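User: Hi! I'm a student and our assignment asks us to look at how structure tokens line up with a sequence. Could you show me two examples?

Assistant: Happy to help. In each example below, the sequence comes first and the structure tokens follow. Example one:
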Amino acid sequence: MNYSHQLPEGIETVPSPSLCIDKDLVLSNLAKLLEMVNGNASLLRPHIKTHKCGEILKLQRELGINQIKCATIAEAEIAALAGIADVLISYPVVGPHVARFFQLKEAYPKTTFAALVDSEAGLCGFAKEADARETAATLFLDLDCGMHRTGIAPGEKALALVQAIETQPLLNWGGIHAYDGHIHQPEVEERRKAFDLAIAEVDNFIETLVSHGIDVPLVVSGGSPTFAMHIEVASQSSRPWQCSPGTPLLWDSGYGTNHPDLDFSPAAFLLTRVVSQPCNGQICVDLGTKAISAENLIHNRVRFPGIPDATFVGQSEEHLVISVDDPSAYPVGAEFVAIPYHVCPSVALYEEAYLIENGKLSEERWTISRGRRITI
């Protein structure tokens, strides 16, 4: 994981803490994604949850990546507003969100929307709403290939659910979604072993469906750590297959540390400043839990390329106290680049990103649509 601790020209005018996105590095990461699929953009379905940013979606679209994955109705609407043609909501859509899904279809007829189901109750909700509106919907089966978070395990119940989708006159069978988020071993060989087990679950279930006369129109699979492995499968498959990484668009210090085999660059960073030197050997920066994701233990929340001797002491809402060898090297007011350990929930804490381009602060800012609702 490499990111220079040199601050972009003009950054001194930006208040801290702030989110900054380097457009050149975003484009570099997108280019690497395309290079890994030999330029075949149809093999990619990146997840929007990492950035929630319409401007980044437009960059993807300009490169021919016109299909995305998302987790919420709001993220689906961001994609539609950015002109994305094909949106898969990769989350079980239940309750009032089913009606919102159909409202999306009505509001954005130029975009194709699909959703996941992994239960009979979820299927019934879609069937009921489709019948009431006399409007069709496309559903993917969320197949549990080992993560045990959402999804239905391969077997008779999963087969019956697919058969039930096909019997509904207004529900279209879209294919299989399989996310292997449980696979994140740092060692490539160990990651490969876990991947082989997960993809075997998917392959075996496809064979089950085919043996019952059910075609699989599309498979959407994988996350960031296994992205390269899913490319191999997708490239060799006789059926349409798409890979769905999210984090590589912005990258972070967590994946950068644990998965150096994936050669992406952190394109998002947080600007922070030293606000105090409270006692011997310590400094305090303005990067509290309201500025960076606090889901992990304190030592795995952020990395400072410009403070190599940092040891994290404590964090509160607006403060991060750090122990350093020589506090005089980090005077009050000094500015630093901070790379999130997990970029997705950190980006979601901000409403806008200051844009960096050609090593300089741009006048442009990018909107982060962090809310759960836009218009739908």
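Example two works the same way, sequence first and then tokens:
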Amino acid sequence: MDGFESNEGVILVSATNRPDVLDPALLRPGRFDRQVIVPLPDVKGREKILEVHMRKTIVSQDVDGKVIARGTPGFSGADIENLVNEAALYAARLGKEKVTMVDFEYAKDKVMMGAERKSMVISEQEKRITAYHEAGHALVARMLPGTDPIHKITIIPRGRALGLTQQLPIDEKHTYPRRFLLNSISILLGGRAAEELVLEDFTTGAGNDIERATDLSRKMVCDWGMSPMGPMSFGKKEEQIFLGRELAMHKDYSEETARRIDTEIGQIVSACYDTAKKILSENLQILHHLSEELIKREVLNSEDLDAIISGRALPEQEKTEDSEPIH
């Protein structure tokens, strides 16, 4: 930006996380005409940020920054700082002199999945339903090729959820192929499919899964051109300029096209649901065994899941989430 004198310049630096709602007058040449995008850190960036924040605390020799960085996709620098603080607080509550890998695992689960609600009273019937629901998610995810590996399955209530199945990607993803998205929808519907097969009834526990699956299939049809309708985009979003909030979807297609869109979305969801049911039907005994172990132990990791699928006996362990670090 020009200063008051011809030989004097003023450089003004500003930051925002919503560049889409800035007044166009601010972005004219000669004003904020240099834009530097600062994305979320990748796995190497997270590892370096983690090293910076771990200097403030005493960590054990077993703490592996690479493992922690790989298990925290999508974390910002502030999220990583919060992770280290939570791990240090948990270690202090246990009277430890050093922060171990177990403490980081506990902190990561708390930050990503919410705090445990072990005091919440759950009936045996609800516990059984939750176990089959999460087992359905995990088994479908394990049997479908090319999906993110299962990291942890738990029926301990966290946040608003009665149970959770957590997947962690092996590497950073920036684009998603159509098959990966279809498999993701099948995994989301795996819990509902397990309820139908075993309980012969439906519960409200699959509400969020169904919403996410429908939203993903709608984006495949309307935004990404991943349907027989071809590479076309349907619907323009109208946003309020100051709030940056989507208020309405401008309908730029006919009623006939709207019916075709609804049909395509329904066919994608139905096909993925049938895939989930087929996988669970073919592995019904494994589903029963997995659910029984979940009810007994409350938490299973990827090694436990592989052992159950292969028919091996699980080692005896205490019924606690942080009994040992998961690598």
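Here is something you could point out in your write-up. The first strand starts at residue 150 and ends at 154.
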